[in-house]
Amino acid sequence: MAADSCGFSDPVFEKEAWISTVMLEWGSCGQLATVDDKTVGCALYAPPRVVPRSGLFPTSPVSPDAILLTTLGTEYPDLDGDIAYRLVQGVVTDLIRRGVRALEAFGIRGAPSSTALSDRPTGTMRLMERIGAPDRGARRSSLECSPQNCMIESDFLEEVGFEVVAPHHRFPRLRLELDSDHGWKEDVEHALDQLLAAASMTVPTRVLTL
After folding, report:
1. How many Cβ atoms from other residues are within 10 Å of residue 198's Cβ?
2. In the chain, where do the E strands start and end?
3. What digits encode the pLDDT tens for the residues 175-203?
4. What is the CATH number of the domain that holds 205?
5. Distance of alpha carbon 92 from alpha carbon 87, whole angstroms
6. Angle (nearest 5°) at CA 25 between 85 and 15
7. What are the two backbone dihedrals, phi and then psi, of residue 208, each rounded to the nearest 5 degrees?
8. Which of 78, 73, 99 is nearest to 88 (CA)?
């Protein structure tokens, strides 16, 4: 019976329903990155109370004054770093405007890697709340949610200013204090400028609030 019920599960519908519910109850909960009017990345965030499965992490719960970053994904390998930085910047700008005190995320740690941020494959900075990711034909198996392809790298989170508040050898919880005066935006923009200069990237990226 369980196997039959799984066959009727529609991850895309469930995701859309979840987003609609959060937007109705809480407000904007996402950022979309576009290049030439094509969506190439997204970030989703919400109060931890509407992401119940976040309680399964060994470093849970999320702090009561924080919003949880649940998704950070890109579909444009050559601009992965650029898009991810801009998405985080969009999230932070929105939350500061709304008076939120902090943004938290569950990161993942793996074997040390010397791979540059701009060279990392698509999907290495994604955290889903495990209600499912959209599947696209032959890519379905590669998008199955697992720690390796559904979570945000701790190294990336630390690069953009998050700090570990709940250590764990595999799934630390990280926090970014959202103080409009602490200069986070300037720090990230400086890091982004360095990243773009090193990669010689010129493709414009727009970030839109959902």
Report:
1. 12
2. 30-35, 38-46, 66-74, 102-108, 152-153, 163-166, 173-177, 206-209
3. 999 976 655 556 656 655 655 554 444 44
4. 3.40.630.30
5. 9
6. 60
7. -115, 140
8. 73
Q: Is residue 176 within 8 Å of 163, Cβ to Cβ?
A: yes
Paired tokens of 59 = 């470093």
State the first-to-last Cα distance of the chain, in angstroms, to the nearest integer. Answer: 37
Range of the domain at 93: 2-209
Cross-strand pairs, 103: 67, 176
d(CA 21, CA 29): 10
Task: Look at the chain and report how many structural domains it folds into.
Answer: 1
> Per the structure block, which two tokens stand in for 54?
């976040």
pLDDT tens-digit readout, 8-31? 567 788 889 999 999 999 999 999
| DSSP, residue by residue, 49-64 | GG-GGGGGSTTPPPPT
pTM equals 0.71
